[in-house]
Amino acid sequence: MTNPRRKLEEDILALFERACRLRELAVAEHLLRALEAATEANDPDRLADGSGALADAYHAVARMRPYRRRSR
Q: Are 32 and 61 contacting, i.e. CB atoms less than 8 angstroms apart?
């Protein structure tokens, strides 16, 4: 059975990825902060070891293409 705290992190990650796909970057930033807070509160050791939903979010950021405004 999935740990409810880990499930919360996975749910936040899914919303973060959706916000990134939609280029809702301000929302994605808040969700990333929420994911950092949840990870720190639930399992601070995972902040350093590069595993879990937070690491997946950081990898998603690294894969993002630069944002370009559309010309009007």
A: yes
Place of tokens 């997946």: 56
Cβ atoms of 21 and 65 closer than 8 Å: no
Instruction: For residue range 18-47, list pLDDT tens digits in order.
Output: 999 999 999 999 999 999 999 888 876 766
Q: Which DSSP string corresponds to 1-54? A: ---HHHHHHHHHHHHHHHHHHTT-HHHHHHHHHHHHHHHHHH-TTHHHHT-SHH
CB 58 within 8 A of CB 36: no
Integer Cα distance of 50 and 22 in angstroms:
26
**CB-CB neighbours of 22 under 10 Å:** 10
